[in-house]
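F.,

This is the one I mentioned.
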């Protein structure tokens, strides 16, 4: 197979992260002026203007007690986001207002929102030191938290997750979890564990969830996923044997789908076919399966 998938949701932010400003407290303070833009958030839900774009205000719109995170520079203007009182509650699919906004935002707005959401959500959930329990303070423009009690430094977390297409004789292995909408199947996925390479994580997860051993694991593409802070690492592998042994604590079902079945489900749109709903376009699984369909093995 050849090139990677096209632009993937939550990638392509227009922000210049301006690390040189983060690391200089005086320079960063100088950015908090009348030119600064404030990303409007209702908790973790994006504010939107009447054009369906992200809503921006000024620092005067911010609660004076809120912590501010420096997102970077956009068109030369400093951009900030407020840390909410509380972090995310529940899984991503249980947040309908957020998903409604995601379906309306442009690619660049979606990338800006995704990065901001992950960052401010991390701050809201990490206000106390993991070493000594004391209250921490925002540092480096929001890209760090410091503990004044024990001098520990804490950094925004990103959790690596492998998500993989497994192929055998022209078919793809897809699975579904009980929480998925009816007939929706997706690529198998799982967190990379300490001491594992990406290739080892792919092999372990596929074996654990579907009982299938794989070979020739290779990287395809990645996606930041801000629910709350995963990095989805898209891979492709070949099955050594197609026999399935499904771990029902992880999957409700797993099946081998033919190219024709997948093409038909993609063409059918959001409602899918009688047996399969294609992964939604905001997810990397959609792009991975599309990539596989459009390129020869």
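My design for it:
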């Amino acid at each position: 197979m050849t090139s990677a998938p096209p632009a993937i949701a939550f990638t392509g932010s227009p922000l210049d992260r301006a690390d040189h400003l983060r690391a200089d407290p005086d320079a960063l303070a100088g950015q908090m002026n009348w030119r600064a833009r404030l990303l409007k958030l209702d908790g973790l839900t994006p504010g939107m203007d009447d054009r369906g774009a992200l809503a921006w205000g000024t620092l005067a719109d911010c609660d004076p007690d809120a912590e501010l995170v420096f997102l970077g520079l956009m068109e030369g203007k400093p951009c900030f986001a407020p840390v909410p009182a509380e972090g995310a509650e529940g899984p991503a699919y249980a947040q309908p207002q957020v998903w409604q906004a995601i379906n309306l935002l442009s690619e660049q707005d979606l990338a800006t929102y995704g990065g901001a959401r992950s960052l401010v959500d991390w701050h809201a959930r990490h206000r106390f030191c993991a070493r000594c329990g004391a209250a921490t303070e925002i540092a480096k423009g929001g890209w760090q938290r410091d503990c004044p009690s024990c001098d520990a430094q804490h950094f925004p977390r990103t959790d690596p997750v492998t998500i993989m297409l497994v192929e055998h004789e022209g078919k793809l292995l897809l699975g579904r979890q009980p929480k998925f909408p009816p007939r929706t199947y997706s690529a198998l996925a799982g967190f990379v564990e300490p001491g594992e390479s990406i290739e080892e994580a792919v092999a372990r997860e596929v074996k654990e969830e579907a009982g299938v051993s794989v070979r020739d694991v290779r990287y395809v593409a990645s996606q930041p996923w801000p629910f709350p802070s995963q990095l989805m690492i898209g891979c492709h592998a070949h099955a050594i044997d197609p026999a399935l042994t499904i771990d029902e604590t992880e999957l409700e079902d797993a099946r081998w789908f033919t190219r024709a079945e997948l093409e038909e489900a993609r063409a059918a749109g959001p409602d899918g076919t009688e047996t399969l709903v294609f992964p939604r376009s905001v997810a990397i699984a959609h792009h991975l399966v599309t990539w596989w369909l459009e390129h020869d093995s």
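The longest helix spans residues 107-125.

Talk soon.
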